[in-house]
Design a protein that fits this description.
The chain has ten helices and four strands; from the N terminus they run ααβαβααβαβαααα. By secondary structure, the protein is an alpha+beta fold. A four-stranded antiparallel sheet has the order 2-3-1-4.
């Protein structure tokens, strides 16, 4: 009987403030969609880092006369052997999974193959290419150990960490993710304010019923419950719409568009999107319950 009365009060609140309820649903839907997209973007960035960092190598370029810092000298065989011995030595061997040495002839042939049909191939000569060590590390995060040990050795021109080339890309993606979180936070604040306003308007429109309830001895919890349910149900609808939008984006855009065009890479999928959906519903319900509870208590005390 009491449950039926509470649900009846919730229905009256929706009817009397329909436009505000729709506003709450839309704002919650948009803000939580941004929030969910930011979570998924962070997941994608983490997956990209694992994918690329595992394949990132440290490259040691040996001297050739064309490089100004080499002062016209070419790395000798003894200098190349010294670098190889350093990589195999007791200091560095535990950090190195494997290394390969590419000769100038091999580098030149690879360049011709990669840029076949391009005019730049006609301009390149074998003198433009140096011997280089391509080093695969046991843990790519230890690249500084290799760089510190090999840089400055005779005949070494440059030691390059491929992770440094990838970092700007991840920085841009992180900035986009944080921007999405910032927009989502602002819109969640707007949703909280809207829920509070909706609850106060709903309470004001039913002030006579509330006065009667107080006169007959109804508890504060009994009076507050319908208003809290109004906020939670409106937010729940927005949360479900946001969850559906996030799942649709991953299914149709990421899985149906990106994955078909970039086949040699792994993207996040529906399991990750389904994992995010309960988070969105939980955040939406929690914010709505808290804001509605505070709003109705402040109104009843006024």
């Amino acid at each position: 009987m009491r449950l039926g009365l509470i649900l009846s009060e919730v229905g009256q609140g929706f009817r009397r403030n329909l436009s505000m309820v729709v506003s709450v649903i839309l704002v919650t839907f948009i803000s939580l969609t941004f929030f969910g997209a930011a979570i998924l973007l962070q997941m994608q960035i983490g997956e990209m880092k694992d994918y690329w960092y595992d394949r990132a190598e440290v490259t040691v370029y040996m001297c050739i006369p064309a490089v100004p810092s080499c002062e016209g000298a070419t790395a000798t065989q003894e200098q190349i052997d010294a670098v190889a011995a350093q990589l195999d030595g007791p200091t560095l061997s535990e950090f190195v999974e494997k290394w390969t040495l590419e000769t100038p002839e091999e580098a030149f042939a690879r360049f011709q193959e990669q840029f076949a049909g391009n005019d730049v191939v006609d301009l390149a000569t074998i003198e433009s290419f140096a011997s280089d060590f391509q080093i695969k590390l046991v843990d790519p995060s230890n690249s500084d150990v290799i760089i510190d040990a090999v840089s400055g050795m005779p005949g070494v021109d440059e030691v390059a960490d491929q992770r440094a080339l990838l970092q700007p890309i991840f920085d841009v993606m992180n900035a986009a993710s944080y921007t999405a979180v910032g927009i989502a936070a602002l819109m969640l604040v707007a949703a909280v304010l809207l829920i509070s306003t909706t609850i106060r308007l709903s309470a004001f429109s039913r002030r006579r019923e509330l006065a009667i309830m107080r006169l007959v001895g109804a508890s504060n919890r009994f009076i507050e419950t319908p208003f809290i349910l109004e906020g939670v149900l409106a937010s729940l609808v927005g949360s479900l719409l946001a969850s559906g939008a996030v799942i649709a984006i991953v299914h149709f855009f990421v899985g149906g568009y990106l994955a078909e065009r970039i086949t040699d890479y792994t993207f996040i999928g529906l399991p990750e999107a389904v994992l995010v959906a309960p988070i969105l519903i939980g955040v939406g319900a929690l914010l709505a319950a808290l804001s509605a509870s505070v709003a109705i208590r402040r109104y009843l005390k006024a």
